Automatic annotation (TrEMBL), chains A, B:
Alphabetical list of PROSITE patterns matching this protein: TOPRIM
Protein name: Recombination protein RecR
Species whose genome carries this gene: Massilia hydrophila
This protein's UniProt keywords: DNA damage, DNA recombination, DNA repair, Metal-binding, Zinc, Zinc-finger
Membership in a protein family: Belongs to the RecR family.
Zn finger limits (C4-type): 55-70
Amino acid sequence: MSRSLDFLTEALRRLPGIGPKSAQRMAFHLLQHDREGAAMLSRALYQAVDTVHHCAMCNTFSDTEVCELCADESRERALLCVVETPADQMMIEQTLTYKGLYFVLMGRLSPLDGIGPRDLHLDKLVGRASDGVVEEVVLATNFTNEGEATAHYISEMLKARGLKVSRLARGVPVGGELEYVDAGTIARAMLDRRSA
Amino acid sequence: MSRSLDFLTEALRRLPGIGPKSAQRMAFHLLQHDREGAAMLSRALYQAVDTVHHCAMCNTFSDTEVCELCADESRERALLCVVETPADQMMIEQTLTYKGLYFVLMGRLSPLDGIGPRDLHLDKLVGRASDGVVEEVVLATNFTNEGEATAHYISEMLKARGLKVSRLARGVPVGGELEYVDAGTIARAMLDRRSA
């Protein structure tokens, strides 16, 4: 067989969730049916590794020192929303309900995976939130065990520095039928009920 | 967000079976946790596109004009085994039961996908099998509808040129329990039964 093909198959296995069979199938497909796509992917990888950094303000991926969103003068600078990933940030942006700035953790606290406060660079978040302009930090980490633990840890840390900290509301999802919503969510919605 | 990241996400979607969510997850993973892997994959793709050709004899992927297996003087040159893909060829090699040469179709006849005899370059196979040295062609395409149709088509074509053509035996798989083997396979095994 071909050495270059073996090397390509091996390299494709570095992609998350891709095993030996999938890697081989991808390599065959690219070489047989889409060499243009392979060349394009090669360039895209090279360019991304070369130019993508972390925004100095919000820590998300950016080609520039400060990302477009952080540089946008029309955003409310007193509000800082903490999310786990750029994908989460995009979801919130799509709701059009938030006009403040963000801080992207690029992960979550996960002791089982050996990710502690230092690995998440939480000191960067503390520095960002303590700039004297930020008044409220909205924690929008996931509502998983790890996301909740991360929110709790950050909350304690920022409250100790006198910052106002809030968390996304929990409750029954829009369109949710009680019969099919889990008991934990309903219990939470009952405790957090608000006047109608 | 980052333009380079968008370009990378777009390029990753050229991989077979990768949708927008997976592409985004892969891009984040590479940039956050495995930039070395991303750079390696970039090089591997570039190198593969640049150096991988089709073997002049067997049509499989090869870095050289004629692949190692075809150049191997110890193989029986009177036997030619036709397979659909390099992966199929590797499976047969692993059995250590075949010492002849191969011809790799790099696909199968599939009218629904618009793949006819011309798209498969069957003329190349005819030329290869008619070199005066090949005595028997063993058809080892898959036992799917498309693989069977491909085998039938090639068989007719080569027999018309006076070549001996055979097909891998069908029957109950090794370790197969009749109770769990499909009726079609058992029927075939009954018809093709051999003296014990």
